[in-house]
Amino acid sequence: MANILPIQPGMQVTLFFALRLPDGEVVDSNFEQVPATFIVGDGNLLPGFERALFGMVGGERKSYVIAPENAFGQRNPNNLQKIERRLFSSDLNLETGLVVNFADAQNVELPGVISDLDDQWVTVDFNHPLAGQAIEFDVHIITVQPATSH
């Protein structure tokens, strides 16, 4: 008889997944590709998504709705920044919806989306694009096994 191991911290999991918005739009999916493999707790999957998998076993399929605070967070108005338009390169065609990469104090790349602009100011939204959204998480667990160290 096969040893059926439930998903828990430290387990290596191989799965197919899809992330959908409430309107059914698919945000990300690997169902038509190669399954993903990760170790629970390694930071490759947000904790709210990992917790939904706890207790599942190989071969199991489920759908969950992950609340915004357990997915990509709630929208934070403090993540909207007004930046003087003159600070942007003149050859950059600024328009709403444009993603612009900035560097934070540690020189880490930080993408922002232009949400509003006028002749003097550009409002940049640094919230995750999926912040404030409930996410439907469809999963098909392929295998669950103890993680091996290399």
Write out key terms for the chains shown:
five-stranded antiparallel beta sheet, single chain, mainly beta, 9 strands, 150 residues, elongated, 1 helix, four-stranded antiparallel beta sheet
Report the sheet-strand fraction: 35-45%
Specify the overall morphology.
Answer: elongated
The chain-level structural class is mainly beta
Helicity level, as a percent range? under 10%
| DSSP strand tally | 9
Q: What do the pLDDT scores average to?
A: 92
Q: In terms of per-residue confidence, which ranges show pLDDT below 50 for 5 or more consecutive residues? A: none
Distance between the termini: 28 Å
What radius of gyration results from the CA coordinates?
20 Å
Largest β-sheet summary? 5 strands, antiparallel
What are the secondary-structure elements, in order, as H or E? Answer: EEEHEEEEEE
Total number of helical segments?
A: 1
Question: Can you tell me about this structure?
Answer:
The model has no long low-confidence stretch (mean pLDDT about 90). The two termini are about 30 Å apart. The chain is mainly beta and about 150 residues long. A hairpin with a 5-residue loop joins strand 1 and strand 2 (about 25-30). The chain contains 1 helix and 9 strands. It has one helix spanning about 45-55; strands at about 10-20, 25-30, 35-40, 60-65, 80-85, 100-105, 110-115, 120-125, 135-145. The strands form 2 sheets. Strands 1, 2, 3, 4 and 9 form a 5-stranded antiparallel β-sheet that branches. It has a 4-stranded antiparallel β-sheet with strand order 5-8-7-6, with no helix packed on it.
